[in-house]
C-alpha cells in the first residue's frame, strides 16, 4: 500500500516541477513513506531518519519529510527535536498528499509543515501514479483506502481512517492504460478488498468486488489480475465463482488467518472462528481446484496458551499453505488489544513460537513447490534473475517465483516453463515455448 501511495506522491510532486532521483545525495527533498504496523517497522524509520541527518551538513536547505502512518500516529512529536537527534521538516498523513505542494512552500520558507487530517472521501482517483520504481510488467492499483474492521491488534483503522472505495470506471481506466503501456499484471489493493463497494447515485445499484475484478479482468485476456488482501469473514462464493470463470485472474488467494484458535480469533476481534476459516479454505478448493493459498500469522498474541499456539500449527498443517507472512505480536498504542489485554507472552516465548511457525511453513512451502516439479507452468517474465544474468525470473499464476535460462525473453513475455527442481522459495526450470 505504501509503495502504491509513493507513486501518488511522485505524481503530485512531478506535477509541481519536482522530479525523482535514484540518488539520495542529489535530492533536495527526501520523503520517507512510513508504516506503523509493528514496532520494528517504526524503529527502522527512526534509524533511517537518524542516518539522513548527516546529509543536512552537505546540503543546508535539505527538506526531510515523514509521510504515511507514522506521521498520523506520532503527529507533532516528530517535529520536535528529539533526544535521538532527529530533525524532521514535514509531517504528512496518508490522506493529505494533494496538499504537498502547499506544504512544500511552508517548508521551503523555513517553517515546519504538517497536515495529518484524515478524510472520509479521498481516494486519489483522478491522480495517475508515476511508476518510478517499476519493472514495467507488474503494477499496483489502489481500489479503496482505510479500514473499519478494528481487529484488536491493528493500528491501521487509526492511521488510515474510514473505509472508502474508488470509482470503478477510474480503476478500469487505469488498468487499460497500464495494459496499453505494456504492463501485464496488476494487483488490486485494499486493506479488505471484499468490502469494496461503489454505489451509483443515478440508479442505486452497487458495484462490489466480484463485479469490479471481472471488469478489470476483461480489459484483456493477456492482463493478469491479482488482489490483496481479503478478510476471511467476507470472502464470498460469488467472488470465488468469478475467479473460477476468468483464467487471467491468478490462481492465488491471500487469506490472512492470524491464528488457528477460535478463542484467540475472538480476542483479536476477527469475527470468524477456526471452523469458519476452514470452510472458506474448503470453498476455495471446491471452486478453484489447485488454487494457491497464502496467509498471515501472528505468534504470541495476548494470553495465547500453548494449546492455542498448537491450534495454529495444526491449522497450518491442515490448510497446507503455499506461503505465509509470519510475525511476532507487537503491541500498538491505542488499539483495542492494548487497552483490553496484557501483552503477557514473554519475548522468548514469542520468538520460539514464531520459529516453530516459520519452520513448519518452510516445510509446507517446499512440499507445495515439489508438487510443481515435473509440471509445466505459465510464467510472466519480469526481468533478469538476481543471481545470474543468464537466467530470467518471473511468476506463475500461483505467485511462485520461477527462474529459467534466458533464451532472449523480454519482460512481459508469457513463457511455458517445465519445472525441473525447486527450493522452498523458488521453482527452477526451462522454457519450452518461444
Ligand atoms: N488488512 C490486511 C492486513 C494488513 S496488515 C488484512 O486484514 O489482511 C498485514 C499483517 O500484519 C496482518 O495481517 C497481521 O498479520 C500483521 N499485523 C498487523 N498488526 C500487527 C501487530 N500489532 N503485531 C503483529 N503483526 C501485526
Ligand atoms: Fe488491520 Fe484488521 Fe483492518 Fe486488516 S482488516 S487492516 S488487520 S483492522
Q: Can you list the ligands bound to this structure?
A: S-adenosyl-L-homocysteine, iron/sulfur cluster
Rg over alpha carbons: 22 Å
The CATH superfamily name of the domain at 2-115 is: Methylthiotransferase, N-terminal domain
Quick one: overall form?
globular
Question: Might you state the CATH topology name of the domain at 2-115?
Answer: Rossmann fold
Uncertain residue segments: none
Query: Which structural class should the secondary elements be placed in?
Result: alpha/beta
Fraction of residues in H or I helices: 25-40%
Largest sheet: 5 strands, mixed, barrel
Percentage beta strand: 15-25%
Count of β-strands? 19
Chain-wise SSE layout:
Layout: H1 2-14, E1 29-34, H2 39-52, H3 55-58, E2 63-68, H4 69-74, E3 90-92, H5 100-108, E4 113-115, E5 138-142, E6 144-145, H6 156-160, E7 164-165, H7 168-180, E8 185-189, E9 197-199, E10 206-208, H8 209-217, E11 224-228, H9 237-245, E12 252-254, H10 262-267, H11 274-287, E13 292-299, H12 306-319, E14 323-328, H13 336-340, H14 347-372, E15 376-384, E16 391-396, E17 401-405, E18 414-422, E19 426-431
The protein binds S-adenosyl-L-homocysteine and iron/sulfur cluster (SF4).
The site of S-adenosyl-L-homocysteine has 17 residues, from strand 13.
Give an overview in words.
The protein contains 14 helices and 19 strands. The protein has 434 residues and is of the alpha/beta class. Among the domains are: 2-115, Methylthiotransferase, N-terminal domain (Rossmann fold), CATH 3.40.50; 376-431, OB fold (Dihydrolipoamide Acetyltransferase, E2P), CATH 2.40.50.140. The strands form six sheets. A five-stranded mixed barrel has the order 15-16-17-19-18. Strands 1-2-3-4 form a four-stranded parallel β-sheet, sandwiched between helices. Strand 15 and strand 16 (391-396) form a beta hairpin. Helix 8 (209-217) packs parallel to helix 9 and helix 12 packs parallel to helix 14. It starts with a helix and ends with a strand. The structure holds S-adenosyl-L-homocysteine and iron/sulfur cluster. S-adenosyl-L-homocysteine (SAH) is lined by residues 37-38, 147, 153-154, 191-192, 229, 231, 256, 258, 296, 298, 327, 329-330, 332. Iron/sulfur cluster is lined by residues 147, 149-151, 154, 156-157, 191-192, 231.
Amino acid at each position: 500500500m505504501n509503495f502504491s501511495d509513493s507513486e501518488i506522491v511522485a505524481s503530485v510532486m512531478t506535477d509541481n516541477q519536482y522530479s525523482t532521483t535514484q540518488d539520495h545525495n542529489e535530492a533536495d527533498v527526501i520523503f520517507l513513506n512510513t508504516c506503523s504496523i509493528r514496532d520494528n517497522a517504526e524503529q527502522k524509520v527512526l534509524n533511517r531518519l537518524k542516518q539522513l541527518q548527516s546529509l543536512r551538513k552537505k546540503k543546508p536547505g535539505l527538506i526531510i519529510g515523514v509521510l504515511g502512518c507514522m506521521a498520523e500516529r506520532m503527529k507533532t512529536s516528530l517535529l520536535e527535536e528529539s533526544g535521538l537527534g532527529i530533525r524532521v521538516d514535514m509531517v504528512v498523513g496518508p490522506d493529505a498528499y494533494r496538499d504537498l505542494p502547499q506544504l512544500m512552500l511552508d517548508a521551503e520558507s523555513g517553517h515546519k509543515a504538517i497536515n495529518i487530517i484524515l478524510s472520509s472521501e479521498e481516494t486519489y482517483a483522478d491522480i495517475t501514479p508515476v511508476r518510478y520504481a517499476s519493472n514495467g510488467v507488474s503494477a499496483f492499483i489502489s481500489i479503496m483506502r482505510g479500514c473499519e474492521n478494528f481487529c484488536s491488534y491493528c493500528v491501521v483503522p487509526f492511521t488510515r481512517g474510514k473505509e472508502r472505495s474508488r470509482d470503478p470506471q477510474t480503476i478500469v481506466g487505469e488498468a487499460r492504460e497500464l495494459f496499453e503501456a505494456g504492463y501485464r499484471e496488476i494487483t488490486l489493493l485494499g486493506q479488505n478488498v471484499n468490502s469494496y463497494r461503489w454505489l451509483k447515485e443515478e440508479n442505486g445499484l452497487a458495484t462490489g468486488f466480484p463485479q469490479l475484478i471481472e471488469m478489470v479482468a476483461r480489459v484483456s485476456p493477456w492482463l493478469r489480475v491479482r488482489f490483496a488482501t481479503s478478510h476471511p469473514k467476507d470472502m464470498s462464493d460469488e467472488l470465488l465463482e468469478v475467479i473460477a470463470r476468468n483464467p487471467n485472474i491468478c490462481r492465488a488467494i491471500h487469506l490472512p488467518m492470524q491464528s488457528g484458535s477460535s478463542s484467540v480469533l475472538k480476542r483479536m476481534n476477527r469475527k470468524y472462528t477456526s471452523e469458519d476459516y476452514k470452510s472458506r479454505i474448503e470453498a476455495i478448493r471446491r471452486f478453484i481446484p489447485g488454487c494457491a493459498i497464502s496467509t498471515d500469522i501472528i505468534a504470541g498474541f495476548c494470553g495465547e496458551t500453548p494449546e492455542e499456539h498448537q491450534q495454529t500449527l495444526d491449522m497450518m498443517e491442515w490448510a497446507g499453505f503455499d506461503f505465509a507472512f509470519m510475525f511476532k505480536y507487537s503491541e500498538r498504542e491505542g488499539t483495542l488489544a492494548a487497552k483490553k489485554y496484557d501483552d503477557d507472552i514473554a519475548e522468548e516465548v514469542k520468538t520460539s513460537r514464531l520459529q516453530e511457525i516459520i519452520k513448519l511453513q518452510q516445510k509446507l512451502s517446499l512440499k507445495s513447490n515439489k508438487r510443481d516439479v515435473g509440471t509445466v507452468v505459465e510464467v510472466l517474465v519480469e526481468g533478469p534473475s538476481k543471481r545470474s544474468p543468464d537466467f530470467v525470473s518471473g511468476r506463475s499464476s500461483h505467485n511462485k517465483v520461477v527462474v529459467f535460462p534466458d533464451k532472449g525473453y523480454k519482460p512481459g513475455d508469457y513463457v511455458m516453463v517445465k519445472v525441473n527442481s525447486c527450493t522452498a522459495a523458488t521453482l527452477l526450470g526451462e522454457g519450452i515455448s518461444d
